[in-house]
Amino acid sequence: MGGLLGMLLGRGRRGRSGGLLATLGPMVLGALASRAFQAWQQGRAAQSSTPLAPQQLAEVDPRFLPSAAPATDGQPFEFAVIRAMVAAAKADGHLDEQERAQILGQMSEGGMDVEAQQFLAELMASDLSPATVAKAAGSEEQASQLYVASRIVVDAESPQERAYLDALAVALRLPPDLAAHLDHQVTVTLQG
Asked: What is the 3-state secondary structure (H, E, C) of 97-159?
C-alpha cells in the first residue's frame, strides 16, 4: 500500500506535488504532519514554517508515519490516507469519468497492480464525506496525517475545496490553530 500511497502523493492535485512526494510519499506525509504538529505544540506561529528539506526526513517522529498504527477499523492506516486523498480530490465535484480514467491510467503506467487499481476505482466511485474519512483516525497524529494528505490534493484557494478542508478539520477534531499549522506547512513545502 505504501507504493500506491507514494504514487498518489506524487501525482498530487493538478500535478503540483512532484518529485519528493512521489519518491518518499508516506515518509514525506509523516514529516509534514510531524513538523507542523511540533511547531503547534511549541506555540510557534503557523507562518514560521519553512519548506521541508530532504535531509529532515530523518527527523520524522515515527508516530506520524502511516505505518505506525492501524486505523480505527483495524486496517492499515495507509488505506485511510488513500481514502482521504480520494475524498479530497472529489471535494470540488469535478472527478468525472475522464479524470478517473486518467488517474487509473497513470497508476497502471506506474506499475500499480490490478488489485490496487480496483481498490482505487471503488474508492473513486464511493461517497466519501469528511466524517467518513475522519472515522479512521485514532489519534491526533493520525488526524494530522489525514488532513495533510487531503491538503496536498486540494486547491485551498477554491471555495468548495477550502470548505471541504474546514469540514474535515472539524470532523477530525483538530484545533483550528493546529489545522493552520498543517495548512501552512503543506503550502510552503509545495511552493518551495
From this structure: HHHHHHHHHHHHHCCCCHHHHHHHHHHHHCCCCHHHHHCCCCCHHHHHHHHHHHHHHCCCCCH
